[in-house]
Structure formats: structure tokens, C-alpha cells
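Protocol step 6 of 9: fold each sequence in the batch and record its C-alpha cells directly after the sequence line. For illustration, a two-sequence batch is reproduced in full.

Sequence one:
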Amino acid sequence: MDALTVMNALAWGSAGLAAVALGISTFNLAAWPRGGRQGRFEGKISVLIPARNEEKTIERCVQAIMANEHEVHEVIVCDDHSTDATGQILERLKAQHPKLKVIGSRPLPAGWVGKPNACAQLAAAASGERMIYVDADTVLQPTGVSRLMALFDSPGADLVTVVPRQDTGSFVEHLILPLLHVTYTNWLPLPLIWRAKDPRFLAANGQVLAVRRSTYDAIGGFEAVARELVDDMAFCRLAKTQGHTVVFADGFHIARCRMYGSAREVWEGFSKNIYEGIGGGLPGLLGVLLIYLMAYVAPYALLVAALVAPSMAALLVPAAVGVGLNLLMRLTLVARHKHGLLSALLHPVGVVGLLSIAINSFVWSRQGRLRWRGRTYAARATRLQ
């Protein structure tokens, strides 16, 4: 078999993977629930916010919850040893909103990760029959609480985790952040998350996570995942393992979030959690690298080769098909989630950037220097000892 035949098979294989990604993504666009705005819950709802050095975002976060169409019983913020103006802002907000409570965090127990520590304390202070965790950089839409309550009824959940609309600012954010939706929607038919009992069928996002109090207590709360950096996945996996229904929803109309504010934050934030998020194993990382390069990068590289090298002209058709399928997939996400068009057009560049971060995440994990919010964490295997 000559080299051109191998390259031609590679080109068609890449186009096939791109077709699979487009097909699953198209199915998910129809199947991914967003929650009806008329959802209601007559019991107590507690909204819980872990906050560490969130002076830029905490006021918008709290005010949006207080302005929600659906009444909540209480809003509790855990100020996790903030060294900026977060505490002063919260004190001012307490004077405006009697429902707002602020608790200070205990010292971080040995081996624990910061966010599960804050989330566990928030649950201990809450009195609601349903608890909604909201990251401090996340802003609930006016119908956000109602839509979350609707998801408990249809498709029917014990725990709801959603992907907010992702706001972006810098060029690197425009490139990388939309790939969250690519990752979530391209490879897993999403209804399997709440229909299949197997906990391997799972996706989660902790920016907004709502849970029945009874479910939270049954699975042992955030104490049970205290050493997990990717706490949202660990928490939802534990719930599924114990037979609870986890609904993963499109949060476009539920909340919006600017996850990171600069290229450096994108690099450090994703480096913290990508490797552990795909299981913390080298085979899993290599599998992701191979699939992403084949489906999302190879068609573009082969198309360039076919256009500039006459000897590679036979690759033109399969490479063009692969590129076209990628563009169609990205444009459907642009329409659904309001991604920037530039991100779709520079799709392979963004993917290469994301894979570079994934490799760095592997390096940081193996070196035991996962850093975030001024804290450094050991590798997962060490934390779980």
C-alpha cells in the first residue's frame, strides 16, 4: 500500500469522524432540554454561592438571584478567605437584602480542595428542600430558577447540572470557550445521561448545579468528593452510581457566565481540570488527543496539502468533505449558543490550543502542582491516599 493510499484512507476516516460528531451534535440540539420558564416549587429553595476573591462579579451574581422571577427562601454566600473586597461588598449587600446570609469558611482541611470545602459548609447552613449552587462569576437569568425547577419535573431529576451561556472577551477566550459545547455535544447522545443507569454516561458543569436535599444527604454531600478538583463530575457520578437521576441541561436561558477573563486564566483554569476531567489516566488523554486531531484538525491540514501539492490532489474531496462537516457543526452551535463566528472559522486553531492545554494539564498533574485561586493541589492519586 503506497503512502497516498494511506493518506486517502486517513482523509476519509477523518471525514467519517467529523460526520459522526455532526450527527450526534444535531441530535443533541433537539434533545438537550432547556427547562420551561413556568416551573414552580412551593417548598424552600436555598441558593448557595462559594466565593473566593470575587470582587468583580459577586454583586452581579447576588443581585441577579434576588431579582429572579421565582422566589427563593435564602441566599447564602461562603466567603472562602477572600483577600480582596469581596467581604465588604457582601456586607453592603446584606443591608439591602434580608434573605442574604454570609458565612466565613473554616480553614481548608488537609487534602481537601477549596470548592468542595465551601460547598459542604453552604449545605450545612442551608434550610432549603432544594439547593441551587451558583458560581460567583455566574449570573442567573430572570427565569433561571423557574427553569431549574421545571427540570426536576421534566425530564425528571434528582440533580440538575447545566451549561450557562458562555460570555467571552479576549481572543483566546473566543477560540477556546466555545469548544466546551463542542465537547459536550459531539460525542455523547445527551439523553443517555438521565436515561441510562451507567455512570460512565455523564457530563456535568458546576457553574449551576441544583439538587434535592434528600439526594444530597443520601450521597454524602460534598464531603464525599472533598478531594476532587473536578468536583462537579465526581458529585454527579456519585449520584448516578447510587441510583439518582442526573439531568444535564442547556443553560442558555438559565444563566450566563464569563468563566475566565484572560488568556492566562484560560490556560490555568483548564490546565487545572482537563486531565482529571477525562479520568486522570494517560490512555484516556491519548485517546482524546487522537480523536480530536483526527476529527477536527486533520481535514484542514489535508485540505491545505491537497491545494498546495499536486501529488496530493487525490485528497481534495475527502478533505473538503471533512472541513465542510466541521464548519456545519460549528455553525449550528453558533446559531444555538451564539458563539462568535471567528471561533467557528478558526476551529482547528482553537482545537490545537485546547489540546496544548490538555497536555499541560497532564504535566501539572504528574508534577503535583495544580494551581488555582492561590492554592496548589497535589495530583489526584496523592490527594486520594
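Sequence two, same batch, same settings:
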Amino acid sequence: MKWLETRLEQKLNQRKEHGILRRLVDQKPGLIDFISNDYLGIVKNQLLVKSQDKNIPQGATGARLLSGNSPWHVDFETACAHFFKSDAALYFNSGYDANIGVISCIAGRNELILFDEYCHASILDGIRLSLARAIKFKHNNVEDLRSLIEANKDMDIWIVVESVYSMDGDFAPLLEIVQLKKEFDCALIVDEAHSTGIWGQNGSGLCVEWGIEQEVTARLMTFGKAAGSHGAVVLGSNLLIEYLVNFARSFVFSTAASPRHLADLSAFFGLDLEDLRKSLSSNIEYFLLQAEKNQLRIKNVRSPIQQIIFEDIEKLKIAESNLINSGIWTKAIYPPTVPQGKEQLRICLHSFNTFEEIDLLIKTVANNG
């Protein structure tokens, strides 16, 4: 199949020529972590203690609808619903599985999906797999969203947003979006991947913190970010969860998580995160202050996800290299992950970072970026 090899090589060479070829990189031991999603240090400090109950099965035997369901799955989902203040919950093996599973099956033909232009790739892929028509609205622009709803109010409409955006780290205007949802009788999906653990009672998310969890049709909470593990739950009504059990293909046709994994993950619900959240908040404020003092181009958002914008892609590459040489591990983000002209250093702040480490990061970028 020479034609296939030729096509694959051409696509890869295009990325090489633009300097944006992706490669798998080993984790670099000993570097200061400004890259991982371990915002609260749950992984670093090994806070998820493994269950010692030998009666809990370690393996998986099949999909949940076949042989894979167990009391541990049911108990875990019940605990999730209670913790995240929802009627019901359904576990998926990843946030990606959850997004493509929910969106692809829930939005029907002759319905409309309005989604924020900065939504995650998993949301976009779920939209592509659905039968619905889809239109993106300008990032966090409630007026643009309103105008699209008004122009299509003869249709049943889904609004899809993230509570905290994975690249920019800014918050969706959820209170205003909920008002639109109620005014026009829309359905609302909120991906809370990057707010799980950080906001809300005991880390139950931004929707809970703002008291709007009952207004959201489906919430997605992942355990692969601040919670320090993997997997996700979709939260909603009992009717919604029953529907997903029947129609979400990424759930129906996936092998179930092992009961042992869910038992280990349950430790998250018992963690006292208050001090870790305070330390993280303090580091965010310190980073913003120092970045402003050193006149770095940032978005000034109060979340663990920060970005330093570079107009020159070559300067960005030099800055990333200089940071590694200074003992700092972070990541330069290039198109197509971000739009052309939005090349950036993506900085993830953590509860365990020190002010001295943040000073070194800022100084290195300011002097060499």
C-alpha cells in the first residue's frame, strides 16, 4: 500500500515543516512540575490510598450490560450522585468517552447544538457523531449565544460549554447561560473536567459552587485531572442516565472498569481538600502578581490553568527550551491544538509549587521569551 505510506508521510512532513510535529515524551524526573493536571497534589502526595479489601475483584469481565456490572459499580455511582449533588450518575472510562457518548446520542435529528468555540476536542467529536445540526458561538459571548438561539428558536436547542476551559483556564458565564437556558427552554451540558476537586463543596465543581447544578441537563466530572486518577461520571436525572445506559455507544460497547479501580477511586470522596485548595489559590494569586510585574502576556484568569502568549513561534520554542534547562517542566502549545497566532506556554499551577519556583518560571520567561 504505497499510496497509504505516501499520504501518511506527506501529512507528517507538513507538521515537521511547520515545527509542530507531536511526539511522545517521557516524564522528566527532577524537573519542577508546571505541566501536570495534578492541581491539588493528590498524585504527588499519594493521597488516594489503595483499598485493602481483598474481596473486591481486581479485573474486568465485560461490558456493564453483559457481565461487567457489580454492586461496586452501583455503589460508586450512588456515591458520585451524592457527592456531586445529582439525582443519578453513570461512570465512563474517560472524559473523552463520556463526551462523545453523551453528545452523540442525546442530540437528535432536527435539533441544534450551540457550542462554545473553545470547547474541548472530545465535545467536538461528540458533536460530529450526533445527528444534530451544530453552530459554534464566540467564546464566552452570551450575546452571540442569545442571537443564535433567537434565530433558531423554532428548533429544540442544546447548549454545550465547559465550566473552566482547558487551554485558557477561564470560566464560562454559567449564570447568564442558565438564564438563557430557562428563558428559551434549552437543554444544557456542562463539562466540569477542570473544576472537579477545585471549586464547590468538597470539590464538587463550579456548578455546585454557584448553586446551579439542578439547572444543568448533564454535567460531566472527570477523575483524570485534580482527582488524580482516570475515568468520568455523567450526572443528571434518573431518566437521562437510563437513556445513556441504552444509547451511549461508548458506554454500551466498552469493557467496564474493574471494581478495584472504583474502590480505590472512592478514596477521593473522603479527602479533606481545604488546605490544598487554599495553597493552590495562593499560588494562582502570586503567579498573576509576578506575571503582571514582569509584563508577561497572560489572560489574568484565577484558575490553575494559565497561558503566556507568544507572537513569535521561534521565541516560544526558545522559551520552552530555556525553561527545561532551568529545571522547569512545562509545555509549548502549537496549532492545531490552539488557533494560529495563539501559540502559548501552557502553565499548570499546583498546591505544591513554591513561590521560589514560580519566581524562577517568571524570571526565565521574562529574560528569554
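Proceed to step 7 once all outputs are recorded. Observation for sequence two: The first helix runs from residue 2 to 17.
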